[in-house]
Amino acid sequence: PMFIKVHGGMEIHLAKRINFAPNALYAVQGKNFMYMTGGIFTLLFPDHDHYIQPTKFLLGVSYRSPAVIVFHTGFGSKYYGIGFSYDFGLSPIRNLTGIPANAFEISLKTSINFGGKSKKSSKFHTPLM
Questions:
Q1: Taking a C-beta distance cutoff of 8 angstroms, is the pair 45, 17 a contact?
Q2: Residue 122 has pLDDT above 60, yes or no
Q3: Between the N and C ends of the chain, which has fewer C-beta atoms within 10 Å?
Q4: Structure pTM?
């Protein structure tokens, strides 16, 4: 069956250095469907051109059907991003080993310019992990 996914979100500037990005996702394939909704707060630090020092910190939470709470956190700059998420299952369903169906994910992102003019940084800061 055809896989259909619809997602969207926006970024709201709450203060000079604080953004909030609500988001939603709906996916369906045949009789199976999943939805997820939540938001991520981003705290922006002063911009600089240092490769290692972070310029943003992210913290958020989402709900994913059926009965999963997802916690998100991360940090990064225009050169890299490191993210961590933890899926906490609210259902008593366990996997085949008898362990609750919780999971974690680590994401790494880097931006490399191979010469030429560098692209201007986007004004959007969230949730680009």
A1: yes
A2: no
A3: N
A4: 0.75
